Amino acid sequence: MMDTRDCACGQTTVRDEAARWFVRLQEPAMDVEERRRFERWLNEHPQHRDEFQLLEGLWSATDLLPHTRLQALCETPPAHSKRRPLVRYAVAASVLAIAVGLGLFSGLYRPAIYTAEFSTALGERRHVALPDGSVIDLNSRSRVQVRYEKGHRGIELTQGEAMFSVEHDSDRPFVVEAGSGKVTVTGTRFDVRRGAAETRVVVEQGTVKVQGRDAADNDFVSLTAGLGTRVDTQGKVAAAYAVNPAELTAWRNGKLVFNNASLAEVAEEVSRYREKPLTVGNDKVGNLRLTSVFKSDNTEALLKALPSILPVAVRTLEDGSQEIISK
């Protein structure tokens, strides 16, 4: 028997029938006899059930897609492909287009919820694609929790650092919560780093709204490309200041870039890539400044180089951690 999912012909295809049955089943008035006809059609051939279940899955996922991506999905797919996964995807798009043509989206409401958690281990970086086309790049020792629902895309950065490339969707803001801070966007590219004492936000592209997690809606700091801010543990947001996004997000390329950074900041950053933490002996040492570039997977090279750059030494403590001290 010919698989109608791989062809286009003049007669009604199985996917046409599946879409029409799907529309009919959403209407409240459906008598017992019509329900029986549907069950008979469903059981006539495995292909019938496959197409109907495919349409059900597509519909449950539509609330996760911004309008522009949904429109793109409804465009006519390629008529033929030798690769089975591509054929399947093309068929899915075709079924969805039929549903749109029959007015499915004008009269139905079915909320969809997507939840997930992603994390990285020591020295690991991870690239995560979300259902709406947005992307998260996770730095070492980082964790995010994701919850998408109708009208809202929510992210909780519970640990570490992440770069967010957000697909534009004006109807569903993308909100990242980290510590006592909150970042709201509709589509942009920005980095959030959660530390013990503060949360840092840096914008590479677009505009974001940064505020304390419990702040009023009109209490926020607006950031555009090339600007950053910090949120302290009390939820107070600092005034926007100029940053170099390429330097602050160089971790995506396995680099640690320090531009006049304090040794206290250097120690905190380096600790992200080591089994045991790196600390500074006192405030005097911590206030020394460093400008240099190192590889994130070779922090030992940084520790060996420090004494030749600054008047410091590095000692190993009993627990295996290391401390930067004055010479």
Q: What is the 3D shape?
A: elongated
Helix content: 25-40%
Number of domains: 3
Average of pLDDT: 81
Distance between the termini: 83 Å
Major sheet: size, sense and barrel closure? 13 strands, mixed
Question: Could you describe the 3D structure shown?
Answer:
- The protein is of the alpha+beta class.
- The protein has three domains: 104 residues, no CATH class; 131 residues, Jelly Rolls; 73 residues, Phage tail protein beta-alpha-beta fold (3-Layer(bab) Sandwich).
- The chain is built from ten helices and 18 strands.
- A hairpin with a 5-residue loop joins strand 17 and strand 18.
- Helix 1 crosses helix 5.
Q: TL;DR?
A:
This protein is of the alpha+beta class and 327 residues long. Helix content is 30%, strand content 32%.
List the helices and strands and how they pair.
Layout: H1 14-26, H2 32-44, H3 46-61, H4 67-73, H5 84-101, H6 104-107, E1 114-119, E2 126-129, E3 135-138, E4 143-149, E5 152-165, E6 174-178, E7 181-185, E8 189-194, E9 198-205, E10 207-212, E11 221-224, E12 227-232, E13 241-242, H7 245-248, E14 255-262, H8 263-271, E15 278-280, H9 283-286, E16 289-295, H10 299-309, E17 312-316, E18 322-326
Helix pairs in contact: 1-3, 1-5, 2-3, 3-5
